[in-house]
Amino acid sequence: MSPRLPRSTRLVIRIASRLVPSWHRTAWVRRWEAEALHRMEAKGTRRGLTRFAAGSLSHAIHVRKEEGMIRGFVGDLLFTIRSLLRRPAFLVLSLSTLAVGIGAVVMVFSVAEAALLRDPPLPEAERLVGVFSTNPAQGMDRFSVSYPDFRDWTGRNDLFESASMFTHMERDLAGEGDPERLIMAGVHLGFFETLGSRAVAGRLLGAEDQSPSFERVVVLSEGLWRRRFGGDPTVVGRTVRLDAVPHTVTGVVAAGEGWPRGAEAWIPLRWGTTPPDFVQRRSNHAWQVVARLQPEVTPRQASFQVAEMARAWYSTNEGGGEQTVEAGSVPVADHGRRRRARADRHGCRRAPGPPHRVHQPGEHPSGQRVDPGPGDRAAGRAGRGAGTPGVAPPWREPGPGPG
Question: In Å, how far from its chain's centre is CA 309?
């Protein structure tokens, strides 16, 4: 037989329950008595139960206040509804005023967001695509491109007007202020020309800057230029330190016309006319590719053509198997839009070679950045035998670069 609560404890709880609303009272009493009984069984004594039960009084007052607030709110709401229904003309006027106010606020915000907050689009952004490798046989949906693949795939003048490649990096910026960590990109020949970027001060990177014998240079973003240097045009020609290495500022790229999004500075890869031996290995998948299509070529057509080129090379030299090939494209006229678009995908049978999919320049399959480190080289080794590319318009914002 289970023990019973002392009569004094039950009496205190039931007296306090008179303050609790009637619809809630029975359940409230049961919870307090069950808690008191649990305490008595756990401690093995009845001492302190009456003091514990006294706490139910303050809780009952709190429940009563909450009930009053809820009833007051419901009563006010019902009164307002009844009053408005008795005066339909005033109701229509109120709703119309509210709708006009909301519409005006939305319109003002949309104009301000487009004019002040959103980055301006790159020139003819719908023709910009990213090129990537993929090897589902190794569990790798998309990964970076090797330099030989970049050279072979983007060398088609009938598909691409221009193309370049880049890699993500981070550097510590020092000089004229506190040091700060920058998200940057190392870029190859023709990078800004492919994007169609403009300089608001100085000049952008040229062919001479890629020479190892030329001085080290850097291009700043307009945001960094205004934030750190106050928009001073004389910053061109000054020297800043990136990881303690002096670099001369050659120019400032216009807001929204750099790539990848989030990068605040760009430096040349400094390979000269002949890349190093390790870069020319087809297994070294370490580079992100951005290309500008010819005016009459669609992203889907380019996807099909570069996939055919990759399948032809890898089936002959590295082997391959029949895979399901998917393709997709999303026409984009504005790089600055921070929204995702839906890809119109379809499937078809091609052999041999793994699939390629829509994706943006600089995006890793997981949404992360890819650095030319050991992980990329391992990805390149795993990708030998596949390397099937895809191209797609860059419609969504990439995530931050690696640490």
Answer: 31
